Write a sequence for this structure.
């Protein structure tokens, strides 16, 4: 199985994990995050970028309520 990548995005809608994806570089994950915000950004949404090497949340975006 291929390495899924170090950087994981998680989309949460109304408190439920709804989508996730992995990228090998932080810059690629950040670019995808911008797309997710444009598509899924709405009240009640949250997008987290996590470094899976240490489990730290690098960036979080919260939809306005």
């Amino acid at each position: 199985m291929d390495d899924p990548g170090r950087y994981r995005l998680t989309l949460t809608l109304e408190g439920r994990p709804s989508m996730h994806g992995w990228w090998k570089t932080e810059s690629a994950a950040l670019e995808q995050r911008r797309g997710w915000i444009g598509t899924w950004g709405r009240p009640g949404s949250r997008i987290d970028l996590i470094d899976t090497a240490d489990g730290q949340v690098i960036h979080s975006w919260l939809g306005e309520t």
User: Anything to note?
Assistant: The mean pLDDT is 91.
